[in-house]
Amino acid sequence: MASTPAPDTATRHVRVAVIGSGFGGLGAGVRLRRAGITDFVILERAASVGGTWRDNTYPGCACDVPSHLYSFSFAPNPRWPRSFSGQPQIRAYLEHVTDTFGLRPHLRFNTEVSAARWDADTARWQLATTAGDWTADAVVAATGPLSEPRIPAVKGLDTFPGRVFHSSRWDHDYDLTGKRVALVGTGASAIQIVPAIQPQVRRLTVFQRTPAWVLPRADREISAAEHWLHRTLPTAATLRRAVLFGLREMQVDAFVHHPRLLGAVQVLARYHLRRAIADPELRARLTPDYRIGCKRILLSNTYYPALAAPNTELVAAGLAEVRGSTLVAADGTETEADALVFSTGFHVTDLPAAERITGAAGRTLAEQWGGTMEALRGTTVHGFPNLFLVIGPNTALGNSSMILMIESQLNYIVDALTRLGALGATALNARADAQRRWNDRVQRRMRSTVWTTGGCTSWYLDANGRNTTVWPGTPSRFRRETRRLTLAEYDLIPRPTAAS
């Protein structure tokens, strides 16, 4: 592992500073180079690339999007081992992209950005990092919404004598074999962790506030013949990706315009539950009371059997209090544990990075948002010139690959940067009226979606009850909306005559 560099006392300047080296940051680096922009740096707080696929190493960690759709269009991978690939394979893919596209010289590891401030006098961003200061004409914030783990405030948590950790910061030094383990949460990570650790632990207690709809996972090993075909005839892999994309495009209408159409999918989910869980009482606790799709639909063939195992107990309530090694649920259920694992998600609608970014008016992004994120086309924010957000507000997907959305945003960002040079301006500032029109339109489309009408409370909603996370449309529609930058939506900031 690379050592932490000593802070550099000299301030260095680049045209573009990219923050983060997950899919968004690495994709930005590739697109910048392809556009002829080579004066950029990728600032990464960790010692290697990978983002969420570097940080999440919990047992069973895998993607719930088909492998051939979960990759860059410009970097197809004919060697995916399974139809749904695991964390090690996805991280290896990102390392491969880094080397193939020559991104290593641009990377600065162990370099966490502690503050980014727009300086109107020089029309540049000033960035303070743990390894020295930088200035940049533009900043691409690719920190991602699944980067900062969220551990709820639980009364008495500090009295627990055993191990406590979040699923995204898995403690591999602690052997769970023969231990009494409590897992808090039943989301996308939890349903992979439960069947992975259940056979080795002495006792597994799962705290469930809200049950999730779970569908079968059509995972299988990709055959040698398929690998050969993808290598020798790349168009076959392209066709496979196109079919996967098309199928998910067709599903979007049900999520966005006609949630009642999801009823057939809900019947399948009920059948999947009934087939796996014989105990009617347990089955009742695992049956959601909201429409499928309102919360993220989960995929697993092994989650239900693991919950039905003799050494597993499902507590249909959240963790309310810790009294030493005794865990107390909201319904009064008590259980003893040696280890406590939180699979409780991330700071998505209250991004910690927003507290570190200060715009032209001297306010942080968090202060300007006031608890409700919004951006123009999910990418730029009024008052924050030349700041580009990758996976910004209302760009997440409920049923397809986020790589599709990332690539659309990168097209938009590169178009903005290249047109700036042609216009002789130094920065673009999103107009407040354009940002408002865009977000009003997004929220109007949100009214008919399953995420609004489905009868649940999900992590898609912010503290004000507004869905600032999901894109209410197809990835192809977002691609059209971000194909080119519309200059009328921006104010141009001229190059300062006294700029250094």
UniProtKB/TrEMBL annotation:
A molecular function GO annotation: flavin adenine dinucleotide binding
Cofactor(s) essential for the protein: FAD
InterPro entries per UniProt: FAD-bind_Monooxygenase_sf, FAD/NAD-bd_sf, Flavin_mOase-like
Source superkingdom: Bacteria
UniProt KW Flavoprotein keyword: yes
Membrane-spanning residues: none
Keywords on record: FAD, Flavoprotein, Monooxygenase, NADP, Oxidoreductase
Family: Belongs to the FAD-binding monooxygenase family.
The protein, known as: NAD(P)/FAD-dependent oxidoreductase
Source species: Peterkaempfera bronchialis
